[in-house]
Amino acid sequence: MMGERTVMQEALLYGFSLERHIPSDHMLRKIDRFVDLSGVRAHLEPFYSNVGRPSIDPELIRMLLVGYCYGIRSERRLCDEVHLNLAYRWFCRLGLDGDVPDHSTFSKNRHGRFRDSDLLRQVFETVVARCMTEGLVGGEAFAVDASMVVADAHRQRGVASSDELAPTSNRAVTEYLAVLDDAAFGGATPVEPKFVSPTDPAARWTAATGGPAVYAYADNYLIDLKHAVIMDVEATTAVRQAEVTAAKTMIERTAERLEVNPSRLAAAPAMARPKCSPGWSTSAGSSHTSQCSTSRSVLTGPSRAPISPTTWNATPIPARPESNYENTIARSLCRGSA
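Request: output the structure for the sequence above.
Response:
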């Protein structure tokens, strides 16, 4: 009959398929084809008890991927979005009625199991290995560069030296004092910073961002120039000496763990100075980059075979001119550091 329904009569049974409601051309479907986290639980098994609820580590990694792909930086908001969005639920394997992990679970695992097991690096290297399998890595020409990451620390609050920090005031101070002599942080340079943040003392007081001085880190990347695939990453304090040390660490680690040895390295001019990078040979590059060959006495091209560790003071190999495509990538990567 004609008229408005006055009583809401909900169906007793629903037939709903989450799989059917996600479009075939959805971005998360395309990503899901390449995401294999089957080894995560096995990797973390030694860090769990034999009793208790099942772990949710693969779901956390998938949620982080959703946040990265869709620019969701807040973990609180990420949990809310996954709770409401059907595509996010499908990608994170939560189903329609699965509970979304609490936002605090991320920080607890990040500072606990994920750090103790080095899980995030294992996932990162799995992705790089997949890129190598798909032929996206050339392995011959690499670029190294660093991005400045401003720390979440008030720029107007600081102490004159690390001696004024209370060792047990917070976790950041405890961890900073533990690596005070590490080459990537306190031991990178004998020069004392003008100020030390009591909130995040590992961050360096610097004006390298081009504006007012802030507390910051350097996020160092090692990039294959064939398709700009990031081969390795290393966080350091925001000082040039630490960036040079990070470049050496990344190249050696890539050779050891991924069995890839570059014959050429593109870097910012400051990285190629002899006093910064002893053992590297430098050839004329563009106005923004210098092509440096790594100091390996026997190296003729990309190599996937394991090699013995080499020193940075071995006989340098003459650098070869890069292709226009490689030069374009290297120039764009290093322009910010020139």
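The first helix runs from residue 27 to 32.
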